[in-house]
Design goal:
CATH class: Mainly Alpha
CATH superfamily: Cytochrome c-like domain
Number of strands: 2
Bound molecules: heme C
Number of helices: 6
Strand content: under 5%
Shape: elongated
Number of domains: 1
CATH topology: Cytochrome Bc1 Complex, Chain D, domain 2
Largest sheet: 2 strands, antiparallel
Order of helices and strands: HHHHEEHH
Length: about 160
């Protein structure tokens, strides 16, 4: 009898843990969707498909799925260099969104990593804080030529 009760309690707490985890992911995704619609949709589009040669897709993007630090940095600092992303070039300029809170950035990136057919772990506010605080300074190798900033500024219509 006691054994049964222990098993039941263990099962219940396991279920609660799983529920809490998926629930926090889905609440973060829901909050992130609101941030995305306001801050990112105009460029990266509702389906995360981006705009060819202007704004990169977030759907099935290698960095979005695999490199949290890089995408946190892009949102914090913006991105103006014309670099290849998944073998394509994009010539628009993404401004810094550092005015968003750590939680908002975590939520919007969690949303991006779990929408448009993407599936990846959540980005946490602590991870954003770490990057914002500069704990992940990347050293530039001297023998790499700098990327030419030949990108024309965005025309605000
Ligand atoms: C003005 C248009 C614009 C807005 C608004 C914008 N982006 Fe971007 N984003 C870009 C462009 C353009 C690039 C690529 C820049 C480059 O190649 O230099 C980019 C790059 C990225 C990348 C890197 C993609 C990769 O594959 O490495 C991520 C992630 C990203 N944006 C997320 C966001 C999020 C999240 C928001 C909203 C908080 C946002 N962007 C708002 C235009 C925009």
């Amino acid at each position: 009898m006691k054994k049964k009760l222990i098993t039941a309690t263990a099962l219940f707490s396991l279920a609660a843990m799983v529920w809490a985890q998926t629930n926090s992911l889905s609440t973060s995704v829901a909050r992130g969707e609101a941030v995305y619609k306001k801050e990112c949709l105009s460029c990266h589009q509702a389906d995360g498909g981006g705009v060819p040669h202007m704004n990169p897709p977030l759907a099935q993007s290698t960095n979005v799925l695999k490199d949290k630090k890089k995408i946190i940095t892009v949102v914090l600092k913006g991105m103006t260099d014309r670099v290849a992303l998944d073998d394509e070039y994009y010539s628009n300029v993404m401004a810094s969104h550092s005015y968003l809170t750590d939680q908002q950035i975590a939520d919007v990136l969690t949303y991006a990593r779990n929408s448009f057919g993407n599936k990846a772990s959540a980005v946490t506010a602590a991870e954003v804080k770490g990057v914002r605080g500069g704990s992940t300074v990347t050293t530039v190798k001297k023998n790499i030529a700098p990327v030419k900033k030949s990108v024309a500024p965005i025309k605000k219509s």
